[in-house]
Amino acid sequence: MIRRGISLLEVMVSAILLVALMTLSLRMFAVTGAQHRAARNRQIATQRACNVMERLAAAPWDALDELSGDDAELQIEVAAVPDEPGARRIAVAVRYNDGKAMPAPPVRLVAWRYRR
């Protein structure tokens, strides 16, 4: 006996598999988009930290102590190095939100500047 056509059961199984694959694909795209946004936000925070560090490196030596500060997103710490009187340790931390409930760990850059 030769069967022609498809049964209702085969159509239902195919539809269930198709819906499952579409659901998984949509979730994968959502997770990928969230990871892309988090990476972009971290890159922006890193660029901001680099810009601040470059500005501090170009600042006059006497003005370094006045640049220490702390706000909601940016924290700058300038400290004298105990063993070397002509050196300053500059730490820049940029806090950012990656869109999740908990804040992301801040981007931190540390540099040492020596008196010429």
Commentary on this structure:
With 116 residues, the protein is α+β, with helices and mostly antiparallel strands. The protein has one domain (8-114). The chain has one helix and four strands. The chain has one helix spanning 8-58; strands at residues 69-70, 74-80, 87-94, 107-114. A hairpin with a 6-residue loop joins β2 (74-80) and β3 (87-94). The radius of gyration is 27 Å and the shape is rod-shaped. The mean pLDDT is 86.
What is the strand and helix layout of this fold?
Layout lengths: L7 H51 L10 E2 L3 E7 L6 E8 L12 E8 L2
Antiparallel strand pairs: 1-2, 2-3, 3-4
- Give the N-to-C terminal Cα separation: 97 Å
- Low confidence ranges: none
Order the strands across the largest sheet as they lie in space: 1-2-3-4
Class by alpha and beta content: alpha+beta
Specify Rg, calculated over alpha carbons.
27 Å
Number of domains: 1
Mean pLDDT: 86
What is the helix content? 40-55%
Helix/strand order: HEEEE
**Structure summary, number of beta strands:** 4
Number of helices: 1
Could you name the key traits of this structure?
4 strands; single chain; 1 helix; alpha+beta; about 120 residues; about 20% strand
